Amino acid sequence: MSNLKKEEFKNYKILVVGDDGIDRFVYGTAVRLAPEAPVPVLNPVTETTNKGMAGNVVENLKSLGFNTYFIKNPEIILKTRYVDDRSGQILLRIDENDKVKRINPYILEQILDNKWEGNDIDAIVISDYDKGFLEEEDIQFICENNKNVFIDTKKILGKWCINASFIKINHVEFKHTKYTIHELDIEDKMIITLSSKGCQHKGKIYPVDKVQIRDVSGAGDTFLSGLVAEYVLTNDIEKAIPFAQQCATIVVQKPGVSTI
Fold first, then answer.
1. Can you tell me whether residue 1 is helix, strand or coil?
2. Residue 122 covered by a domain
3. Which value, to the nearest 10 degrees, does the dihedral of the CA atoms of residues 106, 120, 14, 178 take?
4. Can you give the pLDDT at residue 135?
5. Tell me, what CATH number does 202's domain have?
6. Which stretches in the chain have pLDDT values below 70?
7. How is residue 135 annotated by DSSP?
C-alpha cells in the first residue's frame, strides 16, 4: 500500500466490535509417524503469535493508517496451529477458551449515531466469530442506530442484519445461509468471497490475480479491513472490492496470520 494511501486513511476513524483472540503457530518438522497411531510426529522448532479474529481486523486497519477503536471481550481466546514447516500443512489446531461473556449492555448502548467515547466514527466493523460476545439483538442494535456498518459473521443471517450497509461472508458460509438471504431481500448488501476465484457482489464476479498461496489464515479479516478502508475513502463499493482483494492477496503469500 502506498504512503499516499496511508496519508488519506489517517483522517478517518473506525470502530471495530467483535471477538478478540490470539493466533499461535507452532512450526516444526514432521518426518515420521507415531508408532502407536497413524499420526505424524511434530518436532517443534519455532513459534509465532499474532492478534487474531477481530483483533486481526484492528491490526490490519492500523497498518493501513486508520485511527481505530476496539470493543472486545476481556477473555483470551487462543487458537494454536501446529504446522509442518516443509509443506506448510496444518497438522492440528487446538482452540482454548472458545466461549466468552456477552458484551456489557452499558457499553453497547453507547454505540449510537456513529459516535464512540465522544469521537465521530466513519464506519463500524462488526467482526462476529460467534463466540458469545455478540448476540443477534446486539448486532441489530448497532445496525439500527448507526450508519456505515459492515458485518462479517459466522451466524446464519436473519432480520437482525437487514440494516447493515454491507455483509461479508465466505462461500462456505453463504451455502449455509443463502436461503435466508433471499427471504430477507439483502442480496445487494452481500459480498461473498470465493477463495482463489475472487468474490461476488450483486451477481458480478470480481476475479483475483493468481499467486502462490502460503497461508489463508486471517485473509478474510484482511479483506474486510481493505473493503472498509477504501469504502470510507470513496463511498464506492465497486472500488472497495478490488482494493480489498489486493490486500488479501498480499497476506496469503505470507506464512501464518499477517497484516497488510
1. coil
2. yes
3. 70
4. 98
5. 3.40.1190.20
6. 1-4, 212-218, 251-259
7. -
Q: Is residue 44 part of a domain?
A: no
- Residue 193 cell numbers, joined: 468471497
CB 137 within 8 A of CB 117: no
Residue 193's CB is within 10 A of a number of other CB atoms, namely 27
Q: Kindly give the interhelix angle for 237-252 and 219-234, rounded to the nearest 10 degrees.
A: 150
Query: What is the value of pTM for the model shown?
Result: 0.90
Domain assignment of residue 147, given as a range: 3-21+52-76+100-252
Distance separating alpha carbons of residues 106 and 194, to the nearest angstrom: 38
Four-CA torsion 31, 25, 258, 55, nearest 10 degrees? 160
pLDDT for the residue 252: 66
Amino acid (1-letter code) at residue 22:
I
Sign of torsion over alpha carbons 188, 251, 27, 46: negative
Report if residue 125 sits inside a domain.
Answer: yes
86 in a structural domain: no
Q: Which of 188, 214, 228 is nearest to 64 (CA)?
A: 228
C-alpha–C-alpha distance, residues 202 and 129, integer Å: 25
CB 174 within 8 Å of CB 153: no
Q: Which of 172, 175, 141, 176 is nearest to 159 (CA)?
A: 141
End-to-end CA distance of the chain: 8
Domains of the chain: total = 1
Cβ-Cβ contacts under 8 Å for 211 (sequence gap 6 or more): 249, 252, 253
Give the closest residue to 111 by CA, choosing from 131, 129, 75, 138: 138
